[in-house]
Amino acid sequence: MFLYLCGRVIDQSADDIHEHEVGREVFGRPDDYDTAADNIVRVHASMLRKRIDQYFAAEGRSEPTIIEIPRGNYAPVFRARPAGAIVPQPIVAPVPAEPVATPAPVPLPADLAPAAPPRRNWQMLLPSALALIFACSTFFLLLRTRDVAHANISIPANQVNVRKFWSQIFYAERPTDIVLDDAAVGFYQELTSQQVSLSDYFDRSYLRSLTANTAKPERDFAEPFLLKRQSSFADLGICSRLMQTAAALQGSANIRFARDFSFREVKSGNVILLGNSRSNPWIQPFEARLALRWRFDAPRGIYYPTNTAAPTAEQDKFRATAEASAPHQGYATVSLLPNMNDTGKVLILTGTGGSALNAALDFLSDEHSVSEIRSGLPQSKSNDFPYFEALLKTESRTSLPRNTTIVLLRHTQP
Length: 414
Fold this sequence. Notes:
Layout (H helix, E strand, L loop, with lengths): L1 H11 L6 H7 L14 H18 L7 E4 L8 E4 L41 H27 L11 H8 L8 E5 L2 H10 L5 H5 L3 H8 L2 H11 L6 H16 L4 E5 L5 H6 L2 E4 L17 E6 L4 E6 L9 H7 L5 E10 L6 E7 L2 H11 L2 H9 L12 E8 L8 E8 L3
Parallel strand pairs: 3-4, 3-5, 5-9
Antiparallel strand pairs: 1-2, 6-7, 8-9, 8-10, 10-11
């Protein structure tokens, strides 16, 4: 949202951006959606204003240019920080104690140079500001996750299949690693149209190709963003729920960032991998066992599920529905596999967004829904839940499991 709004002002000289436009272009709402009934833009704009204020009042206190999003309009304004000011005031118009010639907030023309300390290009600040927003949200969610891990939560005894499924992921003997995706490496691949292999990701060699093959303006813009650790809101948002499930089974979990994970860990223990193979390369070694994979549609900027086991003409049939999805619709894939050494379990959760991922977790926490998966799989001689992959579709504004349906279910061989 922040990047879109700033781009509209700087690149297209917009001075008036409406809520309906932001809902369509940023949050994927349909052309005829009702802003009175769906307040997603207003909620996120309020959060964004607060985070921008916090940034320029703390880490960004020395920035020569202040970015503001006035209430009643979503077009950011850029103003030079008043000389001598260390901490900027909130986004309301300042009322100086003494008459001072303070410029009124206006959209910053592309060729305007800040009047204060050394000149900086505001585009160079965007990755840092965006990274800070990610970091603040990550910190808050991780604190929340730490608290829920100690909550008194239990899985009812009559949820036999739910308990059987999750007890293979979380148990008391050793913690499970929850591996968050790396939003920066996903951004890199979208910027360069180059696929990053797990080996290139692990040794960071893909960053050298950015320096060699990318024009300097794009490189200068991207490098600060790529070097910071940041994950998607969708993945962060479900961490607390996974920790709750671990606590209910007297198990524990470690939250890991993809860039800090290792081959030794993915081979040895239980792991939950969040994201897709572009944003979380640790999924790549397991794709050979999966028919359900995710592809990126660059012109539309969306990820969609594909079924590689289907005839070629039918593999991409879910792209059309992913493109035209109404609000609160989406897809998620759930895959349960053995780890690389067959000494533990790997659960891969991927979705079109936070709503789809939360719906998938609701589905996996409902006895009737998990029983539906179990009944569609072959009987096992052991007491373990069989390995499988499933494509789920959610079609409701609520998170009730009955509003999530199994589109495809496949047994995967160990």
